[in-house]
Structure formats: C-alpha cells, structure tokens
DNA sequence: AATCTTTATCGTAATATTGCAATATTAAAT
DNA sequence: ATTTAATATTGCAATATTACGATAAAGATT
C-alpha cells in the first residue's frame, strides 16, 4: 500500500486533514509565518527568505495553494501571494471547538 | 533527497510542524474526533470504530503519542488513550494568534 | 527582437509514509 | 500452566513526499 484510504473517512475528516497536512512541514510553516510577518503582500522574496532552492519553494507554495491556505495573484512578471484568511479561520475554529469540548470533560490520563 | 531539511528551520517551526503533521491524516483526525466524542477515555474500541487494521491503528496511535497529542495509560491488559489538552491548546493558540494578526491587515488578494 | 527576471514544470534520486499479515508481548481469565 | 484478549512490533510492498538541477514559460526591460 502506501496510499491513504481516503474513501473510508468522511468528507469533513478528509478536508480538514488535507488543510492540516499542508501545514505539516517546517518550510510551509515558515512561509505562512513570513506572510503573516510582512505587512504587505509578498511577491518574490520568499526565495531569498528561505534556505531552500527556488523549485522547492515553488512546490511548497503550490501545495499551500492547493490546500486553499494561500492565494496567488499575478502582478506583472512576479506573483503576489497572500494568506487566505478564511482557511486560517477554519483551522482556528476547528481547534477552538475541540478545546472547548475538552474543557467540559474530566480527562482520566 | 526526500528528507525534510529540518536543520534550516527554527526549533519552534519544526516543533509546531511536527504536531500539525501528526494531525494531517484522516485516520488520525478520526481518532482525535472519536476521543473527543466519547465521554470517557477510550480503551480498546478504536479498532472497532475505524475501517483500518489493528496494526495500522496502533501505528497511528503511536504517531499521535510521539507528537504529544495523546497520552496512553496502561489499564490492565488494555490501554487508555486520551487527548493531551495542552497540545490542543497550543494548536488553538497558534492559529488564534495568526488569525488575530491577519485581522489587522488589509490583504491585497 | 534579444535579454533579463520571476515563477513553474519536468525528471529524478533519496527518503518517508501508509497499510497489513504475521508474529510477539503482556496481562487477565480459566 | 494454558488459553484468551488487547496491543505492539516486525517486515515488506505500494505509494507519497522532499529536494533540486535543468529547462520552460511569460512578462518586463533594454
């Protein structure tokens, strides 16, 4: 095997897992944190910011985009990437909901 | 290559990425959601709950445990797994912080 | 039009992940 | 002491991910 059995899980489970998975890599965390840090939208300098080759970063950006975490607008010959706030909100709410539910319980461990 | 270049990122970036990565799989999301759903701590029925073989589930539990998301207590010949609230709190705060920072910005995309 | 800049894609090697059958381990029950 | 039940580990095949050099594509600049 080696392939995830997505058909055995609910659509919601798969979709949240996909979003989360896209963030499960330090380079992609670094990209998101950089996008949060800079006040204007980022255009081309992620390559200078990260210790990875340009094709690698392009690939990571693609994954973040596929997962809906960032958006990219063509701006001349460069591209303006920024965070999709809705995606972050979804993740924030997901964990807030879990945290709230946990508070009402008496964990045994 | 194929291995993540962890040495090029900060400890914080690597540690949050590790936690998030552990959740980036529908089976592990399903496990967490099941642990949230059941009111008592789970012991052995995750295997009956999920459409995966026992060794596969054991492996997923191990990953969640390694990432600090769940704890496991031996309880007779079975094991009582439960969510580590601190880990969920960390994730919740991480995304809340990002969401708050984003609100103060005017996204261009 | 030729060149430069920026980003994407292709191809490929190295490594990691997913899943499970078979087997081991550990403790309870008989 | 054997058997049963629950969980973990091992070994392995299938697939996915990570990384990057080489190259392509597309708009800007000269």
Descriptive tags:
homodimer; mainly alpha; Arc Repressor Mutant, subunit A; DNA-binding
Please tell me about this protein's structure.
Two copies of one chain form a homodimer. Chain A has 109 residues and is mainly α. Chain A has a single domain (10-103), classed as Orthogonal Bundle (Arc Repressor Mutant, subunit A), CATH 1.10.10. Helices cover 56% and strands 11% of the residues of chain A. Chain A has helices at residues 11-23, 26-37, 46-49, 54-66, 85-103, and strands at residues 70-75, 78-83. A two-stranded antiparallel sheet of chain A has the order 1-2. Chain A is globular. Chain A starts with 10 loop residues before the first helix and ends in a 6-residue tail after the last helix. The mean pLDDT of chain A is 91. At the A-B interface, helix 1, helix 2, strand 1, strand 2 and helix 5 of A face helix 1, helix 2, strand 1, strand 2 and helix 5 of B. Chain A binds a DNA duplex (30 and 30 nucleotides) through helix 4.
């Amino acid at each position: 095997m080696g392939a995830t059995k997505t058909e055995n899980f609910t659509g919601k489970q798969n979709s949240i897992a996909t979003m989360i998975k896209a963030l499960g890599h330090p380079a992609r965390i670094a990209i998101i944190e950089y996008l949060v840090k800079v006040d204007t939208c980022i255009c081309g300098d992620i390559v200078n910011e990260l210790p990875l080759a340009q094709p690698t970063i392009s690939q990571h950006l693609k994954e973040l985009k596929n997962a809906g975490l960032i958006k990219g607008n063509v701006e001349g010959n460069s591209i303006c990437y920024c965070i999709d706030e809705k995606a972050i909100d979804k993740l924030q709410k997901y964990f807030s909901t879990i945290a709230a539910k946990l508070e009402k319980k008496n964990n045994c461990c």
